[in-house]
Design the sequence.
């Protein structure tokens, strides 16, 4: 299992970047367009300002166009570390945590963070463990608001937790969730 | 016997890892197979007419497992073809994605198909993580972090492609990053190397590739030619590289940018042709 020494050595700084208040200049945020490296995703990136530390933190949100229940939120501080500091994945492969195999499989939706030793770990919060509440995390608006509460992201005007309106800015188009992402694939049959 | 009880516990643990997620007419099966990148493999079970299809869902190619699959790497390709053939995996390209899959209309053989496809995915991911050459590993890290940096600072309207040629006519002339912003292209070469000789080779290749493009019909579309230098590389020795450095500058728009001065890129990327 990979260990990131930089995080382990500066763990207090790492935690403070995640937990301290970060501000966005608009609320709700919208998608700007396509992800530059993946045209099949909607994408937005916002620079967040932080009151007490000079480092700027960037927030990115991406959502698969063909499956709106598949999205990711990333918080990065590229002057501190080159990988995302905390992530939320609504979909994708389950993560394997270190420790007894029995408890090691953390399926999506899940959060990803680093532990004190600099190891990447995935986890479920109390709400993600709850069978009745888990389904809400496939709704990007619900999941995003939860994420911004957890990572303390507010707006500069009203001091409210940041939310997302999941359509491309200045368009009317709204995605309709598609449950079966393989529906259109024929497999040559 | 006590050890039999232990075995039962082991079997129970492995079985407990297997889960499913309902996705309309498709079922995602989360398997107990785990990669060296700390992910559990998922396969997708669906039906087309009377045929059972088990597929990777496109996750191998689209980067869901976060492994660096470099189909251009000759050594990796040998491993890839070996596993593809051994497990008799089919591939199809639909909706601009590649899906790996196997089919059967025999209910009894579905576990076999799940087995084969899972091991295929697992072996591909794990093989792709092996760095057969240590020097390559260090250069690879520089390439990856530079790619990440450029992705991060590029403006929202750009389309970024990595390790691409500019045109099918000049397929072997590749650039580490190509940014398209409307009709304009900004192209990047990264220079690195774990010995001075490798470093100079990297510089020379960059120079030649920029020269070829400069003399081609595509030159008018290119609004920026940039070089990112890994000045932390083992092979970075200023006196050895100086003649190659000076020669390179005649073919690019801006002096090579050392990694420690990467912020200069931000301003350059936001500049426009005219």
Sequence:
């Amino acid at each position: 299992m990979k260990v990131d020494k930089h995080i382990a050595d500066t763990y207090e700084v790492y935690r403070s970047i995640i937990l301290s208040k970060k501000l966005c200049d608009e609320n709700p945020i919208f998608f700007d367009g396509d992800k530059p490296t993946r045209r099949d995703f909607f994408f937005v990136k916002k620079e967040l300002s932080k009151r007490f530390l000079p480092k700027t933190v960037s927030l990115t949100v991406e959502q698969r166009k063909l499956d709106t229940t598949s999205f990711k939120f990333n918080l990065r501080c590229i002057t501190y570390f080159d990988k995302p500091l905390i992530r939320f994945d609504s979909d994708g492969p389950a993560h394997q945590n270190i420790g007894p195999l029995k408890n090691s499989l953390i399926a999506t939706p899940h959060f990803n963070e680093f532990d004190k030793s600099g190891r990447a770990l995935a986890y479920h919060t109390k709400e993600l463990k709850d069978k009745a509440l888990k389904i809400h995390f496939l709704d990007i608006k619900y999941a995003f608001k939860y994420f911004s509460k957890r990572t303390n992201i507010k707006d500069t005007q009203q001091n409210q937790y940041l939310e997302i309106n999941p359509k491309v800015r200045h368009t009317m188009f709204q995605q309709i969730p598609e449950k079966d992402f393989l529906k259109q694939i024929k497999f040559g049959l | 016997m006590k050890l039999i009880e232990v075995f039962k516990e082991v079997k129970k643990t492995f079985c407990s890892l297997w889960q499913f997620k309902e996705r309309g007419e498709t079922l995602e099966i989360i398997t107990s197979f785990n990669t060296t990148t700390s992910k559990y493999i998922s396969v997708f079970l669906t039906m087309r007419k009377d045929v059972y299809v088990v597929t990777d869902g496109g996750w191998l190619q689209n980067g869901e497992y976060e492994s660096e699959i470099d189909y251009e790497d000759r050594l990796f390709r040998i491993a890839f073809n070996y596993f593809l053939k051994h497990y008799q995996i089919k591939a199809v390209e639909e909706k601009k994605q590649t899906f790996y899959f196997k089919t059967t209309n025999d209910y009894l053989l579905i576990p076999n198909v799940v087995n084969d496809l899972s091991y295929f995915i697992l072996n591909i991911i794990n093989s792709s993580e092996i760095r057969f050459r240590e020097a390559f590993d260090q250069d690879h890290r520089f390439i990856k972090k530079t790619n990440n940096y450029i992705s991060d600072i590029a403006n929202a309207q750009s389309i970024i492609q990595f390790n691409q040629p500019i045109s099918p006519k000049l397929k072997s002339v590749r650039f580490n990053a190509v940014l398209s912003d409307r009709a304009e292209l900004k192209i990047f070469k990264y220079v690195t190397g774990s010995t001075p000789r490798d470093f100079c080779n990297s510089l020379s290749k960059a120079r030649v590739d920029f020269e070829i493009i400069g003399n081609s019909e595509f030159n008018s579309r290119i609004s920026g030619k940039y070089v990112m230098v890994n000045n932390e590389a083992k092979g970075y020795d200023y006196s050895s590289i100086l003649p190659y450095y000076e020669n390179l500058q005649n073919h690019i728009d801006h002096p090579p940018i050392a990694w420690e001065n990467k912020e200069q890129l931000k301003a350059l990327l936001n500049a426009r042709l005219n």
Remarks:
- Chain A is about 15% helix and 35% strand.
- Helices of chain A lie at 5-9, 11-19, 126-129, 131-134, 140-150.
- Chain A has a mean pLDDT of 90.
- The CA atoms of residues 17 and 57 of chain A lie 8 Å apart.
